[in-house]
Amino acid sequence: MKKKTIHLLGFIEFLILLSTLLFFVLASEKSMIFLVDKVTQTFELKYQKLEGNILKNITLYDITYKDKKLTKKAHIDINFKALLGAQLKIDDITLQDVDLHVLEQMIEDQSHDNKKSQEQNLENIPTISISSLFFSTTPYRGHDINIDNLKFIANDIEGDLTNLSIGSFSFYTESDHTNITADGSIEDRVLDLNHLWITDIDIEKIAQFYNSKIKERDKDSQINKDEDKRGFKKLIKAFKISNFKTDIKEYDYKKYKIDTLKLEAHDLISDLKSISAKTAITAITNMWKLNSQGVLKDNKLLTDVDVTLNDKYFKKFVPFFDHDKIKKLSVALDLSKEGLQADVNLKTDNLLIGKVKDLNLSIENAIGYADLKFNPINLEVHIDGNLTAKHAEKITLDCDLHYDTKDKFSYTGMLFSKDIRNLDSNFTKLMQNTK
């Protein structure tokens, strides 16, 4: 019995001595340099200065990739106690002033490796736990975009690439294309955003950037595109946005000018197949002003739109109408990716001005319906109306307008009245003049 006790005490003593030795080995500067060099050399990285030890935290300064400066400072605080339990837990990661040009080159170089081995490596990445993460960049000047500022902060990161959760995060970027602010969380593959603000959008630069990326993607196979979609769906299965807003910078296109275009959405929900939300749109151009309140449901926008026509352009195109009578229009819209449907109701009296004012034309009720299909372009417009005038008490209007890219415009219509009295020549001129 004594021999067994002595052997047990000896084994415990051995473990204590081994642990102490291991502690001093890992805590030594040479061990830290050896391990860090092994990791950095794998990715062709170099550094100027190294501080800390493996048991607490490590800070690397002035890291370069192929002799190009990648980042000013990289700090990692590893939870050694968790590491002993075969868990990868990191209390803090800081990557400060990362050069996106160099990072982009590094990612491109790594992507040249065999794809299968990359996929296997991703699948073999262990479950990680990061208490806090900070990432910032230096100003980026690229061929298609200039980024002045980019920051990402996250807390309580848990899981792997197939099921990643983030307790909270915030993201901010400022560029010559747009500014983006976002904050939220990820849990059970659901991205939950408190705010997503995409402001000061430069339409012209965004269009140029988009077209250049489309050309690049056209070089890739459809298989690669499908892989990108599947990769995103592995990370996120749905998203929610409590408060979304976006606006654009002033934009000029030939004779048209957009001074203001704002979109706001609340309680936005999507399962990556359909989107639902409450929406509000404000638009001001040199031709009209628009305000809209509605809902987005199952990828369809159902909204009531109030349109105020600009006096200058209205009088130029329809000089014989009293602008004040119909400058405010209410339109019900149904918009989807397939097309757009619109309903307009109009009532007014004494509509005509100028030389035809004496006709005393009034609209008792007019209903217009438009159906626009996007692919291919096809427009159908139908208008029904009941009118009264000086020379006819009851006038019925019934007309149809059709447009497509093949046959262009076609029109059929009827203006009918049972009782016409002393019809003025000005009225016939008005009917004949469609310019």
Number of helices: 10
Q: Over the alpha carbons, how many angstroms does the gyration radius reach?
A: 34 Å
Overall morphology: elongated
Low-confidence stretches: 1-25, 431-435
Could you give a short account of the major beta sheet?
A: 23 strands, mixed
Mean pLDDT: 78
How many strand units? 23
Strand content: over 45%
* Euclidean distance between termini CA atoms: 115 Å
Write the layout of secondary structure elements.
Blueprint: H1 2-27, H2 29-42, E1 45-46, E2 49-52, E3 57-65, E4 68-78, H3 80-84, E5 88-98, H4 100-111, H5 115-123, E6 128-137, E7 140-141, E8 146-160, E9 163-175, E10 179-187, E11 190-201, H6 203-219, H7 222-235, E12 238-248, E13 251-253, E14 256-270, E15 275-285, E16 288-297, E17 300-309, H8 311-317, H9 323-326, E18 328-335, E19 339-348, E20 362-373, E21 378-389, E22 392-404, E23 408-417, H10 425-432
Describe this structure in words.
The chain has a 23-stranded mixed β-sheet that branches. The chain has about 425 residues and is an alpha+beta fold. The protein is elongated, with a radius of gyration of 34 Å. It starts with a helix and ends with a helix. About 25% of the residues lie in helices and about 50% in strands. The chain is built from ten helices and 23 strands. The chain has helices at about 1-25, 30-40, 80-85, 100-110, 115-125, 205-220, 220-235, 310-315, 325, 425-430; strands at about 45, 50, 55-65, 70-80, 90-100, 130-135, 140, 145-160, 165-175, 180-185, 190-200, 240-250, 250-255, 255-270, 275-285, 290-295, 300-310, 330-335, 340-350, 360-375, 380-390, 390-405, 410-415. Mean pLDDT is about 80; it is low at about 1-25 and about 430-435.
